[in-house]
Amino acid sequence: MSSEDSEADIGELAATINPLAETRAHWSLFLPAILVAALYGCAWLILDWNDLAGGALARLVFLVLVAAPPLLWGHAFLRFYSIGVALTETHVLVARGWPHHEARQIDLGEIESATVRVSPLARMLGSGSLHLRMWDGTEIDAYDLKRPDRLAALIRERIRTPAA
Question: What is the CATH T-level fold of the domain 4-25+84-160, as seen in this structure?
Answer without folding.
Answer: PH-domain like (2.30.29)
